[in-house]
Every structure is written in structure tokens, then in C-alpha cells.
Amino acid sequence: MSLLRSFRFSLAARAGSCPAGPLLLQAPQPWHTLRPGPRLSSSACSKELLMKLRRKTGYSFVNCKKALETCGGDLKQAESWLHKQAQKEGWSRAAKLHGRKTKEGLIGLLQDGNTTVLVEVNCETDFVSRNLKFQQLVQQVALGTLLHCQNLKDQLSTYSKGFLNSSELSELPVGPEREGCLKDQLALAIGKLGENMTLKRAAWVKVPAGFYVGSYVHGAMHSPSLHNLVLGKYGALVICETSERKAGLEDLGRRLGQHVVGMAPLSVGSLDDEPGGEAETKMLSQPYLLDPSITLGQYVQPQGVSVVDFVRFECGEGEEAAEAE
């Protein structure tokens, strides 16, 4: 409890200054042991072709040379061959690393129009979670979840919220510009980074007019290639109902998200509930994180919005409890 209290104080100070079953995988033959096709002349496998293929794919000089030799110097076929062999190697390594604990990772938050998603992807070490390739995997999972949500044909009269577990996430398509599912991208990332990883979970929210989704990510860093994606260790979405779009609504939503991250409520509660102490689990009855002299309900009421729901993700939560059991 002292750690949680310390975290809340640091969060308040910062704000004030501004399950699814395992995949059974069969290990294929590693790609470096496959027999290449007939060797080409040095002119066909020129340095220029090699450099072009290496820049485009990021694979090693040796593997790019082997790909060009195998595919008769055809650049497009060589690129496809490289991806297929990397996929096989990724699945092989995933099979070997399966079962190793994944308590680190990142939360990813992505908003587009009236749709917002939170995803969690786990790895073994914090070092790998700071690797660009891992962050790109989180980006792919967030995009896949966003596209899945946007493709749902629902007529919204009120907000809509849903969750995806690990196996459901794994089967989502990567997107319109790539083939395969998210589990294929997971295998590729495992093959490249050499750690076990899991697509833990995702949540999505869609809102019609008259609703607003506030969001907050603690320890936030923005994705280098997708400016709407925010990465961190904690994330929260807060769904509010409002009669009109008010000035400062984004800042209000961020403060509500900070409260959810720091105070970890279990339910929204009601404005009629009695004020509670630090152990209170109803959001509106909790002491407001940034001003504990009032409840969150007392902070929200004059703002002209109603808090109706929330989602909170903490990276790695559940892993320590499972380990203790």
C-alpha cells in the first residue's frame, strides 16, 4: 500500500506542475540450414542489388545474398523469400521461448475519431520494451484493434465498449497493407529480439455525439511513426456524457484519466454515495487524486459532465498474483 501511495503522490505532483491457452507450435527447419538454389554470377548478385535489398528489408548481408541467389536475382521474389524464412525462424524461436514469464512491456493508446483503443503487449525485460521493434509491434496491435472496432457495424445511440483476450488478438488481421495475422507479427518480433512476448489484451470504446472519451497514459512516450499512438506503463479511458462540447474538455478528460490510474477504482458509483477514504473503490466517492480535500464527484459535478464508465490497464498486472499462487 505504501508503494501505491507513493505512486499517487508522484502522479499528483506531476499533474499539478502542468487469457487464452498457449499456442502449440512446431519448430520448422531454421532458415540458415535451407539449401539455396543455384548460385548466380557476381554481376547478377551485385553489390547494388544487395544494398537495395538490405535497405528495404533490414536483413543481414549474408541472408540477402542467399535470397538473391535462391531467387535468380529477382528483387521482389528475394524480399518475399526473406520474409518467409524469417517467419519460420520466428515461430521456431517462439516455440523454444514459450512459457518464459513476460512481466514487462507496454500499454498502447490510440484514438481515431470516435474510437479509442487500449492494448497491452508484454515481454520479458524492460530493456526490450524500449526497443523500437517492440514498440512497432505494440503499434501494429493497436492498429489491428482499431480496425477491428471500426469494422463493427453497430448503430450507436450510447457508448459501446468491448474487450479482446490474447487468443482473439492473435487472430486479428494486421491491416489492409499487410498479409497475415497479429500472431505472425508476434513471431517475427520474437525471432528478431530473442525474448518471449505475449499479446495480452485490448479494450476499445466507440462513442456517439454527446459522449467524450478522456484518456491518460502514465510515463507517456509517443510512437515515432504514428503520432496518435501513446505508449507507457499505465493507461486509462474515461467515458463521459456531456450535453455540449465544452472548452477544456480534453484537459478534464486527462485529469479524470490520471485519477483512474492513480486511485485504481473498481466501479463508477454515484454522486449520491457517501464520501469514502483511501480504501474507497467507487470512483466518484474517492478523494480526488489532485485535491484530496474533495471527492472526485465534487470535482466533476460543476464541470457539466457525467462520468459513466472507465477502463484501466496496468502493464503486467495479474502476473505477480499468478506467480504468488
From TrEMBL:
GO terms for cellular component: intracellular organelle lumen; mitochondrion. Keywords: Elongation factor, Mitochondrion, Protein biosynthesis. It is found in: Mitochondrion. GO terms for biological process: mitochondrial translational elongation. Belongs to the EF-Ts family. Associates with the EF-Tu.GDP complex and induces the exchange of GDP to GTP. It remains bound to the aminoacyl-tRNA.EF-Tu.GTP complex up to the GTP hydrolysis stage on the ribosome. This is Elongation factor Ts, mitochondrial. It comes from Neomonachus schauinslandi.
